[in-house]
Amino acid sequence: MEIYDNVTGQVFVETSMPVRSMVSNWMNESTGKRDNPSTYLARGASLQDMALRSCIWHIDICTPETLAEVPWHLAAKIYDRMVQMDTITLNSWAVFKMRYPAEVEATYSKSVYEDSRGPVQLPSIIAQIRKMPFACLTLLSIDGLILSINSLMLLLDLPSLAVLHLEDVDRIHNRIFGNWTRAIKEKQAFPNLQVLLLGCLSFNHDITGLEIALTALDAFPKLAMVQVDAMFRYAARRYLDLPPEQQIFCEGRWTRISDQGDIRPDITWKTPGLTREKLHALHKMAQNPIVEPSELAADTPALALHYVDRRNHQHEVSYPGRMSVWFAPAPEDKEESHHKEKSNGNGQQKGSSNKRPKIRHERQKDLGSMLGSFN
């Protein structure tokens, strides 16, 4: 609305914006829309349909205790109707999963949209995941948001994280990434993280910078696959175009995953589809005999969240020289490492038995001069 001031001749423009609640309600949001039972009062409907609509409309106040006396063949009618209408929320899935753990599917996927440039809802997301009433793996994608060191540090409070995808529009500097990985190592965080996708790093765009980033990832104890999506210089691209067996990274601690092998994460990630569904596919791909078993069982319920900027989630930014490279930690020879540890232990024990106290040459001189003064 415009207001004209006759005295000064100025035009004032009044604008209004919708009020945004400080309480995040993403847990009770769904893609589909529920049917309001009151709109069906004048229509003919069966008693069962009326009961289903009423139960779905008031599902937010439902708890596992509410369903304590309800057998699954009746509760399944409510759950299946919500699946068909795409009105399953995180809270409702958790309630049904806790009450009927064997019947309800073990995976849940959801997209959380952000209207700000930064991850404003990230503290709420982490808090709600930590409040889950049962053990649950977390597959998290943070896409198109500006990530600060504080945002990255919040993720350390999420031990159930199994797959993590970071896509920062402004790119994360080497120093911030190094501080984050050092904090992970000191806190022994991410005990279940197996897949890491980094579309956010900003290093020197050469092989040396790539190896520095891979060396920092030694802090992740159970990491099985790593994706580095970055811009590389021409020399680095030529080296990365060589056959994977001719590429050596970090003195052989990391190996390049070939697109022609049995495991092809790059093809899975680039296939058109929902990001949250790709997270599930990558997590299943990481379950191979080479990887040490996770602290949580493979059949543990998994929650996939795609936390994305509402304005930029449909546009993929392309840069000249941008490449997506996948790595895996080189498998260690357990017998060789055990023999090495045993030999080191024997050497230390043998050295300790033959070790004699020695006096430095200078100390001997000082001691001799002191004794000579008493003669």
Question: In brief, what are we looking at here?
Answer:
The protein folds into two domains: 105 residues, no CATH class; 243 residues. The chain is 35% helix and 17% strand.
**Strand residue percentage:** 15-25%
Structural class: alpha/beta
- Separation, N- and C-terminal Cα atoms: 107 Å
Question: What is the makeup of the main sheet?
Answer: 8 strands, mixed
| Beta strands, count | 12
- Strand order across the biggest sheet? 3-11-4-5-7-9-12-10
Number of H/I helices:
12
Q: Domains counted in the coordinates: how many? A: 2
Uncertain runs with pLDDT below 50, 5 residues or more?
289-295, 334-341, 347-375
Q: Helix content range of the residues, please?
A: 25-40%
Mean pLDDT: 76
Q: Using only CA atoms, what is the Rg?
A: 29 Å
Could you explain how this protein is built, in words?
The protein has 375 residues and is α/β, with parallel strands linked by helices. It folds into 2 domains: 1-105, no CATH class; 107-349. Helix content is 35%, strand content 17%. A hairpin with a 6-residue loop joins strand 1 (2-4) and strand 2 (11-13). The chain is globular and about 75 Å long. Residues 331-375 are annotated as: Disordered. Residues 331-343 have a biased composition (Basic and acidic residues).
Q: What distinguishing features does this structure have?
A:
single chain, 375 residues, alpha/beta, 2 domains, eight-stranded mixed beta sheet, 12 helices, disordered C terminus
Write the SSE topology:
Elements: E1 2-4, E2 11-13, H1 47-57, H2 72-85, H3 90-99, E3 107-114, H4 122-130, E4 137-143, H5 149-154, E5 161-167, E6 172-173, H6 174-187, E7 195-198, E8 201-202, H7 207-216, E9 225-231, H8 234-240, E10 254-256, H9 265-270, H10 275-285, E11 302-309, E12 322-329, H11 334-354, H12 361-372
